[in-house]
Amino acid sequence: FMHMFQSSWSDFADFEKIFVRIKNTISEYVMQHWKEDFMFGYQFLNGCNPVMIQKCTKLPDKFPVTHEMVSVSLERELTLEQEIEAGNVYIADYEVLDGISPNSTDPCTLQYLTAPICLLYKTAQNKILPIAIQLGQTPGEDNPIFLPTDGQYDWLLAKIWVRSADFQYHQNITHLLRTHLMTEVFAIAMYRQLSAVHPVYKLLIPHIRFTIAINTKAREQLICECGIFDKANATGGGGHIQLIQKAVKSLTFRSLCFPDIIQARGVDNKEELPTYFYRDDGYRVWEATKSFVSDVVHIYYASDEMVQEDEEIQAFIKDACSFGMQDL
């Protein structure tokens, strides 16, 4: 992949080269439809990073979209404000990318980052469509709001920049931080504090057996200086470090609990968002895991007092909080 593209894209046909080795019905479909608004909206629900979309209950001041701007995109003969009140408007905000230094390790190929805000609308057919995009966090003449009524390539480029920001968020926060690095916090604490015969060790070990190994490989080849991130990503060259440090400051344990974060984003209602399969599948995995783990844990712990008296568990939690998360 790296050898195919030493510099920027030069043609839309270049994208086809990516799919040479992964031909299947889904990749073919995406190649045919990626420029269309319905596919762009659908990816917020079931694409690589289905964790950004949230119910819009009030337009933020930094994103001054008016009814006149988007009226042509609305279907229900309601004003934008009424659509928001009716629960038909969603938003994706990449504020965490604001101020992150873009990759400048190769002076011949300068790279760029945006911190966009995207407004999404649920149609009468339950499709999620983009209706307004602002590529920066501070509104103004040099930071216009792009609309589907703009020129074909202005609108397409605005969507590409949102997708680019989504990629940076997914790679650095959803994937690297919230899966690899967070799991390592608990893996290290487990190996330090729980004996191999402890029931919680036995519950955790299948999930974190290879965590430390793969993360070591990532630190050696992927996120290190001159690694793949530095060569290929707009957040390489130190931006990825800034981004993860920023994201950790607002990370909560509660946000790692699937139902809580789905509810916090206001996307838990199946009738309102019937095609959000990430949510539906996620709930099933969560419930199956919770049911199994609860059954096992209740064999060993009959009360909260028994948990408090388990020195290994208490040391495990303290290790994760105080050393892993630095008491954040």
Automatic annotation (TrEMBL):
Keyword Transport on entry: no
Cofactor annotation comment: Binds 1 Fe cation per subunit.
Keywords: Dioxygenase, Iron, Metal-binding, Oxidoreductase
Keyword Transmembrane helix: no
Highest taxon above the source species: Eukaryota
An individual GO BP term: lipid oxidation
InterPro entries in alphabetical order: LipOase, LipOase_C, LipOase_C_sf, LipOase_CS, LipOase_Fe_BS, LipOase_mml
Binding site for Fe cation: 175, 180
GO molecular function, one term: oxidoreductase activity, acting on single donors with incorporation of molecular oxygen, incorporation of two atoms of oxygen
Domain Lipoxygenase: 1-328
Listed cofactors: Fe cation
Pfam family, one: Lipoxygenase
Family: Belongs to the lipoxygenase family.
Protein name as it appears in the record: Arachidonate 5-lipoxygenase
Organism of this sequence: Perca fluviatilis (European perch)
